[in-house]
Amino acid sequence: MQELEIVAPRRRRLVLPHGGALGGTLLSLVLLVLFNLVATPHFTSLQTLYVNLTQVTTIVIVAVGMTMVIATGGIDLSVGSLMAISGALAPLIFAGKLLGIGPGPLADGLAFVLPVLVAMGFGCFNGWLVARFRIQPIVATLVLFIAGRGIAQVMTNGNLQAFHNAAFHTLGLGRVLGVPIQVWLMATVVGIATWVIARTLYGRQLLAVGGNEAAARLAGLPVGRIKILVYAVSGLLSGIAGLIVIAINSSSDANLVGLGMELDAIAAVAVGGTALTGGRASIIGTLLGALIIQLLRYTLLSHGIPDAAALVVKAAVILVAVYIQQVRRAP
Amino acid sequence: MNGKRSGWLIAAACLVSLAAPAAQADDLPKLKEKPTYKVGFAQTESNNPWRLAQTQSMKDEAAKRGWQLVYTDANSSAAKQVADVDSMIAQHVDVIFLSPREEKPLIPAVMKAKKAGIPLFLIDRSVDPTLAKAGRDYVSFIGSDFVEEGRRAGEWLVKTTGGTAKIIELQGTSGSSPANDRRKGFMEVISKSPGMQVVASQDGDFTRDKGRQVMETLLQAHPEATAVFAHNDEMALGAITALEAAGRHPGKDITLVSIDGEKDGLQAIIDGKMGATVECNPRFGPGAYQAAADYAAGKKIEPIVVNQDHFYDSSNAAQSLAGSY
């Protein structure tokens, strides 16, 4: 009973970031939406919502994994490259070029499952480097950040693979109950991750490792295993994101799939109020952070601002969002 | 090594050559007649079927002639492409074929090759003519007339829409010659019809993914659009995806015109989703290598060699599908 008393109050503090931080992120998002309602023509339509949600899906899915990795005090730079690997593998599999299983339902099924498992395997490799050899996460995942895209390019000779596949077409453009499948997928991932962090033993272990690794080790937590699993999850989610990107376009380009994704994901986590020092994780914050970045891009584009200028505005708004958080977090 | 110094040298060389434009034709590096050549081809990227077809054509023709080909792919980076040309110079190739990614950033590559005494042909895309001139700094530009491509796309659109349209333009890579020139030709034509109005225009980087995302956004902001002009087929295909996802019916309630004539583009015309596409022939190998051989033989090479391009619409797309890339 004594133990429970100690755990319970700590859990509440660790699970939710300070209300202020989340509030700051939410405030930024609301301001951005208000601006659009006033200034952007035709902003109030369901289709606008779907466009933004489908465009943000891959960032959110990857950023959820990133949030969990960052909660353990780590970082995963390899996510974009793992997306490229998974995106390059799938067309090779369903076209029968890799396994020799001709086009058909079996090949389609394998094309969904295997690339994701491969990405997860690479994620395990990241975790293994971090946990077993105590390599700093930024260096350990840099290995696959560089090599991963190379692997994807070698598999495809760096060439674009265009394809027509009904199953992938459905993943990219299909709708269930009028809502794009990707949005359901994103909601599922966010829901499961929120539940894992808030309600499961593993969630608590994750935060404990990030909060104070030495203490967690002394308390008898399997720190190595916890870390390997979290990188594996990040790899798995990157794999799914890679499949979504190629499914929407019906084409896979190893040079471009997931390019710059690590930075988008980290930005979403930072704007969402998860401290990069570890020990905290706010999945909802990350979702809001990703939405802010996405809506910003949408706003700039629909107002005809060229890409180069848009990048600067994006950076400025990230700064403002983080600043608002800091102000609201201060007592 | 001393990139900075050589940078200054090139800048100085540019200035000198600008100051004395006359009587420089002899500067152009010569090419000895040989039974076989070692040629370099600096490709800009391999992210669309057009590029793949171009590379394949260069490789096939080299194999056919028994020439040795040094091939590099700049992966969409102008900086890497300059470095690629450097490495070709270091490998002492006889001729360099360059598809410059952007008009200005590739000037140093052209100048370095000239300084190293290696004749260089620009294929498909060109460089800024105020900084480097055909016949003086490089032998010749071989490629399509991008302005004319833009004009033809514009003319078709004016005719098909009866001179009234609200157009969304998906531009190619900012600063590249096809993007600049196709836009120029297109605007030239439609500016004569007061009913033709470009309501939005953004960079889609010649890729399907970017083209789709930009189209999704522009369509939300400008649902009144009745036509799309994409600078290449890949972006047009991305736009079709975006339109269908938004519940529009490309080919019926919105007219698409594009440039390139790739296989998926022709298929989209056959499916009734795309209206027309102006061919931009990617099969450079035979013409480019022949130009090099002619140059070695001392024949006069025109500073600009223009490819002949077809025009595809519903009347001929089906017949042309088999031969497309």
Describe this structure in words.
The complex is a heterodimer of chains A (331) and B (325). By secondary structure, chain A is mainly alpha-helical. Chain A has a domain at 47-259. Helix content of chain A is 76%, strand content 2%. Chain A has helices at residues 2-15, 19-39, 46-71, 79-94, 105-132, 137-156, 166-173, 181-199, 201-211, 213-218, 223-249, 261-271, 283-302, 307-329; strands spanning 161-162, 175-176, 179-180, 251-252. Chain A has a two-stranded antiparallel ribbon. In chain A, strands 2-3 form a two-stranded antiparallel ribbon. In chain A, strand 2 (175-176) and strand 3 (179-180) form a beta hairpin. In chain A, helix 4 packs antiparallel against helix 5 (105-132) and helix 4 runs parallel beside helix 6 (137-156). The two termini of chain A are 33 Å apart. Residues 1-18 of chain A have low confidence and may be disordered. Chain B is an alpha/beta fold and 325 residues long. In chain B, helix 6 links the parallel strand 6 and strand 7 (196-203). Chain B has two domains: 19-143 and 282-302, Response regulator (Rossmann fold, 3-Layer(aba) Sandwich), CATH 3.40.50; 146-280 and 314-323, Response regulator (Rossmann fold, 3-Layer(aba) Sandwich). The model of chain B is unreliable at 14-25 (pLDDT under 50). The interface between A and B is medium-sized, with 35 and 34 residues.
